[in-house]
Amino acid sequence: MTPNRSFEPLAGVAVRRLRGLWVVVALLAVCALLAAGGDEVRELGRYERYAIESGEYWRLVSGHLVHLGFGHLWPNLAALAIIGLLFEDVFRTADWLRLGAASAAAIDLGLYALQPDVLWYVGLSGVLHGYVAAGALALVLRREKLGAVLAIAIAAKLTFEQVVGPVPFTAASVGGPVVVAAHLYGVVGALLAQDAVEIARRRSRL
User: Fold this and answer.
1) How many CA atoms lie within 13 A of 111 on its CB side?
2) Residue 48 pairs with which residues in a beta bridge?
3) What pTM does this model have?
4) Are 175 and 69 a contacting pair, CB within 8 Å?
């Protein structure tokens, strides 16, 4: 009997996609594992202003990976999966790492320096906003219509949040307050990082 090899090409494509998106897969896994730790892990990992001032610097990273609960976790993970598929041909592994780090750092700096009233923060949403903004910029520079659509959508959302406040029912669905400033800072950090790369790429072509 001749073995059925019809699934081999599909398996090869799946493996290549996983390799290209390993950063996204790793983020999904880490966030899910930390959520399984419950309240104790969340308390230990959340961005907490006074704890950071006392030397607990890991919170600058872990604060973006822990969530308030399942109602907060699953929309972020679903959005991350969609973003990964949407930009898998736009971002390379280094881009996912660089943009995520830039967004997280901008959020940490923005909250600490400009939002002293924010004593604690959790969640990946600020970094997710950064990924979308950077992806939109990359697509706009490629002259793809989707880039303009995404740019308009995220600009409108940020404007609404800064002028009016969180999108209605968001706080109720995630189970706690929504720090909309984190979305703005995440976008700023990612756009600065993406701009730097685009400038470097253009200079390399000269």
Assistant:
1) 27
2) 120
3) 0.90
4) yes
State the DSSP H helix or E strand holding residue 48, giving kind and residue range, or none if neither: strand 47-48
At position 173, the amino acid (one-letter code) is: S
Residues 21-63 pLDDT 10s: 999 999 999 999 999 999 999 999 999 999 999 999 999 999 9
CA distance 132 to 83: 7
- Distance separating alpha carbons of residues 151 and 179, to the nearest angstrom: 21
Q: How far apart are CA 7 and CA 9, in angstroms?
A: 6
* Alpha carbon distance 144, 34 (integer Å): 37
Angle (CA) 124 102 197, round 5°: 130
Closest listed residue to residue 120, CA positions, set 108, 102, 129, 106: 108
Q: Classify residue 127 by burial, with Cβ atoms within 10 Å: 0-12, 13-18, 19+.
A: buried
